[in-house]
Design a protein that fits this description.
Immunoglobulin-like; 3 helices; elongated; single chain; Jelly Rolls; mainly beta; 5 domains; seven-stranded antiparallel beta sheet
Length: 730
């Protein structure tokens, strides 16, 4: 024997159990309470048992109502999945010839003037090609409010093609798209999830409401305005004459689908026994809605790319009175076939706007943990779950985090820090099988708008490179459900690297001499397979080609004379393993014998022109004096600069009354034909590579100047000045 058991309820009503048995009907009175749908339907049971985490719907100040049209089959039922406590499901359809609707309450409207986001999980049964007919997410300002329903010819008997929102194409002689649109839910926009292709054409199409999907894939997602004639495409069937009499034209209609998502390779991608995640994002300024399908993994909840479409919505078509507010919800309809149409809400428009993310940091290596940055055994790690409240009509409270922590970490501490509330300590010893429940006791609002759940620990010892998989944690409340994914990362065995130089250190070379630097890397690791080691040499700040050592750890680094500068060179060596480990850094000073010389000397220089006044005076240098010394013998070497000069003589042989003198902070000394030391200097290669600008270190009133006595005679005088460099022994 066969039968179907369905439990119905209404607010403040007694539940009635109807048992369909042949032509008989037995009515039983049940107790008041939350509805359960008792069905001989394993798919329905499986859907409830695998329902993802969602919010509670049957609560005080409910955001949604199933108390809509008197013909609606919709109900609120409890999920039975022990992993998603508190989740309630909106059941839209679960039988043939049903209309179902669930609508937001008046206070929980969709605000068209603000950016809005909604996310939910949808279930379309497991009927495959036999599924029918799907459901639709709807925005509407129909004057009937929550009682809005298409104008079905037989009240209470739904037509599957409409999905509970589109026009009713049952009048075959009706030839106006506008009149067809008048039978739909008015002032509305619908995003349909269509599991059944309605694509009849020709003489058998008119009047049968089975043509909206002409030219469309069998299963598809699309959108448009149900109450607007432009959404429909009229087709005409002229028919054949009967007994020579021309028959009136018949009409049937297709639907203009916008923003279509379909997968020809998986024609049954909706009714496949899986929960499907959908995110809707409204951008008020652009007047655009983006809907993304399958953007979370139904088994883990992890974020995945999904498929997105963006459509422009004309507010004048759905909000003719320019209120900025619109009702939202789901509708569905079935004909002779059906599927289980279920909705689990994660976030609803405008109630709580929030987001949750996760990050990991390697405190030892001081870098983020992700697919590009590996972790080494015994590294100190930190896992952070970030919660941010971005606004909404109510605060975000009573949040419970169901943390699924990354494996291969021994956790030591756990805490919650708030933007503007005292921190809370969590008991890390309660972590079991990488799971921890974290209750956030503070509410989120405009003044306390963020929190971070932080855990620290140490990476476990592993014998070989291990991939630690990503994990998804869920933060649950009555108003919002958020997920946060930690990254997948590579955990490598700990490796102890010690680098040493076996050639001379420090190293002294003669000029124009090539050399070879040698060394060895000692490796100690618990890894079953030794890691690959690379040595990174840097000479005078320039990276050289990396070196791969021999199997015994030895290596050599040829250095050409052209690579080295005269004087002091600095070579640094460090070894790294592909596990992320780093050795000690070894520094090798290399000194190349250099020389002491003038790097710049002016061949001719002059003193400034002086006007004779009969008084003694000092004449400054002109602007063409140049003198610089280059010492490439290395840091710490010393030199002395001597100067001597012949007497200044005019063209006619007259000697100048006066002569050159050297002036510094300690006084002055006359310069004559006897060498006089004037500069003592200790070379530092860090200072202009050992080049000392003698003239550049003299002010205008110091250095070599010309003393002119009061009795000097006017004329042009010349002298020969000799500069001499001398080494100062250490």
């Amino acid at each position: 024997m066969t039968g179907r058991v369905i439990a119905y309820w209404g607010k403040g009503e007694l539940a009635v159990l109807k048992w369909r048995w042949g032509a008989g009907l037995l009515a039983l009175v049940l107790a008041l309470g939350v509805s359960t749908i008792a069905r001989a339907d394993s798919d329905y049971d499986d859907a409830l048992a695998t329902a993802p985490q969602g919010i509670s719907l049957n609560k005080d100040n409910a955001i949604l109502t199933v108390d809509t049209s008197g013909y609606s089959s919709s109900a609120i039922v409890n999920a039975t999945n022990p992993a998603t406590p508190g989740t309630q499901i909106a059941m839209v359809n679960n039988n043939t010839y049903q209309f179902g609707s669930i609508w937001s309450t008046d206070e929980n409207y969709f605000d068209l003037t603000q950016d809005e986001t909604a996310s939910m999980w949808l279930y379309f049964g497991n009927q495959g090609t036999q599924a029918a007919d799907g459901m639709a997410f709807v925005l509407q300002n129909d004057p009937r409010g929550v009682a809005a329903i298409p104008d079905y010819p037989t009240p209470g008997k739904a037509i599957g093609e409409t999905l509970g929102v589109w026009g009713v194409d049952m009048a075959k002689r009706q030839g106006s798209v506008d009149k067809l649109a008048q039978t739909a839910i008015q002032d509305s926009w619908a995003l349909e999830f269509d599991t059944n292709r309605n694509a009849s054409t020709g003489g058998k199409a008119a009047g049968y409401a089975n043509s909206f999907d002409i030219g469309m894939p069998a299963v598809h997602i699309g959108s448009n305005y149900p109450g607007d004639g432009s959404s429909y495409i009229r087709h005409v069937d002229h028919g054949l004459p009967v007994l020579g009499v021309i028959q009136p034209d018949n009409y049937y209609y297709g639907l203009n689908h916008l923003g279509v998502i379909a997968d020809e390779s998986q024609p049954n991608f909706l009714s496949n026994g899986q929960w499907h995640h959908v995110t809707l994002s409204w951008k008020a300024a652009a007047k655009q809605m983006t809907y993304t399908f399958n953007d979370k993994n139904p088994q883990t909840g992890a974020v995945q790319p999904g498929v997105s479409r963006t459509v422009t919505i004309d507010p004048t078509k759905i909000d003719p009175n320019n209120t900025g507010k619109i009702r939202w919800g789901f509708t569905g309809a079935t004909g002779s076939r059906y599927e289980n149409n279920l909705v689990v809400f994660e976030s609803v428009p405008g109630l709580v706007e929030a987001n949750t993310t996760a990050t990991m940091t390697d405190l030892t290596q001081k870098q983020p943990v992700d697919s590009s940055h590996s972790v080494v055994s015994h590294d100190k790690l930190q896992v952070d779950y970030h919660l941010a409240y971005n606004g909404g009509r109510q605060s975000w409270s009573s949040i419970e985090g169901h943390l699924k922590l990354p494996a291969n970490i021994s956790y030591e501490t756990a805490k919650i820090t708030y933007a503007n509330q005292p921190a809370e300590t969590l008991d890390a010893s309660q972590i079991s099988q990488q799971k921890l429940t974290a209750a956030l006791h503070q509410s989120f609002n405009q003044t306390n708008d963020a929190a971070t759940v932080s855990l620290t620990g140490e990476a476990d010892e592993v014998a070989k490179s291990t991939t630690v998989p990503a994990t998804t944690s869920t933060f649950v409340s009555n108003a919002y459900v958020g997920t946060a994914d930690t990254p997948s990362f590579q955990l490598n065995p700990n490796v102890d690297l010690n680098l040493s130089v076996t050639s001379d250190n420090p190293l002294a070379l003669k000029p124009e001499t090539d050399t070879v630097m040698t060394g060895k890397v000692h490796l100690n690791t618990s890894a079953t397979a030794p890691p690959q080691v690379t040595i990174h040499p840097v000479l005078n700040g320039t990276r050289l080609t990396a070196i791969t050592p021999a199997t015994d750890g030895t290596f050599s680094l040829p250095l050409a004379a052209s690579d080295l500068q005269a004087g002091t060179n600095t070579l640094t060596l460090v070894a790294t393993a592909d596990t992320g480990d780093t050795s000690n850094t070894v520094t090798v000073p290399i000194t190349v014998a250099g020389d002491l010389k003038f790097s710049d000397v002016a061949s001719t220089s002059h003193f400034q022109t002086a006007t004779l006044t009969g008084q003694d005076q000092v004449v400054k240098r002109g602007d063409d004096w140049r003198l610089a010394v280059s010492d490439t013998r290395g840091t710490g070497r010393q030199w002395v600069l001597d100067v001597q000069a012949t007497p200044f003589v005019a063209d006619n042989g007259t000697a100048l009354a006066g002569g050159p003198m050297y002036v510094d902070a300690y006084g002055s000394v006359a310069i004559d034909e006897v060498p006089t030391p004037i500069v003592w200097h200790t070379t530092d290669d860090r200072d202009h590579d050992g080049v000392y600008d003698v003239m550049g270190n003299w002010s205008a009133d110091q250095g070599l100047l010309l003393a002119v006595d009061g009795g000097a005679v006017s004329g042009n005088y010349t002298s020969t000045i000799t500069w001499t460099l001398g080494d100062v022994p250490s």
